[in-house]
Amino acid sequence: MKNITSHVMGIRLQNYKLMGLPYSGVANTTLNELFNIQSGVPTDTGIYPNMALLAIGNGGHVMGVTSDGLSYPQLVNHSPRDCALINHLPFQLVLASNDLSAADRANYAMRVPTTINGQNYIAYYLRVIDLSAVTVQLLDNTVVNGDVSSVPWVPTSSNLHPTPTIPSDTGSVQTSSDYVSAEAILNVAFGDSDIEALMNVANILYGTTDLAIISEAALCAAQMKVVSAQASGGGTLSYTEAIGTILCSSMSCYYHLPSLNQELTLSFDVGGAESLYGVDDGST
Q1: Residue numbers of the domain that contains 228
Q2: For 152, phi and psi rounded to 5 degrees?
Q3: Fewer CB in 10 Å around end: N or C, the chain?
Q4: What global pTM score does this model have?
Q5: In sequence order, which residues have a C-beta less than 8 Å from that of residue 173 and are 6 or more positions away?
């Protein structure tokens, strides 16, 4: 089971993009402010943040207990007003003296120096998503007894010459359970090394890999920009960082990583849907 939430800051970004208006951020809404990384730095003029980053956390559930003592995870809901996950987890947590290589670092963002039990670490809280294989589909969706079947929707010349829908005498407009949608399935796969890295995160944070749990995840938008920071061995480190990072869409889920067969894929259905009027046969 998954609980999906659209976040208002992502909707706001869509509005700016659709209308081509000059984009600017809002205080107290970015992950940069949460982690104090490039906090308050604006996106460049004329640049819109792109939704190509993933955040994860372990705050999307609580443990329930049945009357006979069995425990089970209960998913909790995010609010559209939320501008962060309930409890973020880093994808990588490495010793500051053994930071990721430049090639590995390119796969992550939100690089946060942190101290745990007297040791200096670098945490990476965002993962860069490869969007090169993602396609957007137009679909005609038919609902029968709650089951949905979908076929590609191909516009015809009749869509350029609409037939008016006449409402009933009551003035109400009847809608159908059928709907049309524009969707893009965005899959983020975790391989052996990704899961091992998350197990290492849990071991450092909690002292056990049994708490390597993902129960919330979010698609985030940001501008990727080269910045400079102090390197652990002295000197300056230049790397690409996420600027003006906002949550667009999140889900509550439950994945206990030690129980998985070293593989996991998080899937997001990005897009929108509109119900059809009851008099519409779904073809137009």
Answers
A1: 3-131+186-269
A2: -60, 140
A3: N
A4: 0.91
A5: 165, 167, 277
